[in-house]
């Protein structure tokens, strides 16, 4: 009887709450559906995120590779431009040397040295490096020759180039010394050559040309025939007058440079 009483009450309780029970089951069913949908959405989201991560990694690597390639191409382009400039510089250097523009030639040689040292990996520049060193070595002789030319026929432009070139090579202190030696050597050689030419106008002396050529000026002058003395003296004096004219123009150039420097200091 007690069990029947309990079952009766339980049945009454179930029947009285049946609608709530059905509603609860409906909610549980909806919750199950929502959970399934959420599971599917989470799986899809995880797949999308994984794909995005892969794509992002690949694109990042691709961008980095492209940037590296661009930097390599930019470096190659810069090297090619420098090599082209070196080729053009060689042409400019040749033109500057032929034109007697020694300061420009020295500047181009110095730039070429630095450029060749920077791009030493290019074997094609080895020959050009030797060429630049060879031209720098020859510049000393060219400067001496140009300075000698200025003593004979003074040119303000050419003389200034010679002086500036000596300063650029760190040989400014040698300009005066070389200039004095050049004047002396020029006087000695040209006056002797003039005397020698007039001495050989004598038939007897012409037969002994090689022997007379080795004589000093004083002994050679004794072989000069009296009939050729005036012409020889005229030639030597004419040469010396031209030399003095060049010397005067040179001193005037230095005076102008000194006045300009003083004016600049005052300003």
Structure description:
With 267 residues, the chain is mainly α. Helices cover 87% and strands 0% of the residues. It is built from 10 helices and no strands. It is rod-shaped. The mean pLDDT is 83.
Q: Tell me the Rg in angstroms.
A: 50 Å
Q: Report helical residue fraction.
A: over 70%
Please report which band the strand proportion falls in: under 5%, 5-15%, 15-25%, 25-35%, 35-45% or over 45%.
under 5%
Q: What class would the helix/strand composition place it in?
A: mainly alpha
End-to-end separation: 134 Å
Q: Please give the number of β-strands.
A: 0
| Average pLDDT over all residues | 83
Stretches with pLDDT under 50, minimum 5 residues? none
Summarize the structure.
By secondary structure, the chain is mostly helical. It is built from ten helices and no strands. The protein is rod-shaped.
List keywords for this structure.
mainly alpha, 267 residues, 10 helices, rod-shaped
What topology emerges from the helices and strands here?
Layout: H1 2-16, H2 18-99, H3 102-118, H4 126-152, H5 156-168, H6 174-199, H7 203-206, H8 209-213, H9 217-222, H10 229-266
């Amino acid at each position: 009887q007690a069990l029947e009483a309990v079952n009766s009450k339980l049945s009454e309780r179930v029947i009285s709450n049946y609608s709530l029970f059905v509603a609860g089951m409906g909610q549980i069913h909806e919750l199950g559906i929502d959970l399934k949908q959420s599971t599917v959405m989470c799986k899809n989201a995880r797949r999308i995120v994984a794909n995005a991560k892969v794509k992002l990694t690949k694109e990042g690597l691709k961008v980095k590779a492209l940037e590296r390639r661009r930097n390599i191409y930019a470096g190659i382009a810069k090297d090619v431009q420098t090599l082209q400039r070196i080729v053009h510089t060689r042409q400019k250097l040749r033109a500057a040397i032929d034109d007697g523009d020694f300061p420009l030639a020295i500047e181009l040689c110095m730039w070429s040295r630095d450029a060749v040292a920077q791009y030493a990996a290019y074997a094609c520049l080895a020959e050009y490096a030797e060429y630049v060193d060879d031209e720098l070595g020859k510049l000393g002789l060219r400067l001496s020759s140009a300075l000698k030319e200025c003593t004979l026929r003074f040119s303000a432009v050419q003389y200034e180039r010679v002086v500036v070139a000596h300063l650029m090579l760190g040989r400014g202190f040698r300009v005066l010394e070389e200039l004095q030696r050049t004047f002396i050597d020029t006087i000695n050689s040209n006056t002797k050559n003039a005397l020698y030419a007039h001495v050989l106008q004598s038939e007897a002396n012409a037969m002994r040309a090689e022997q007379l050529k080795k004589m000093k000026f004083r002994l050679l002058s004794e072989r000069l025939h009296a009939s050729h003395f005036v012409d020889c003296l005229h030639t030597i004096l004419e040469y010396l007058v031209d030399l003095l004219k060049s010397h005067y123009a040179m001193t005037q150039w230095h005076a102008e440079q000194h006045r300009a420097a003083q004016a600049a200091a005052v300003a």
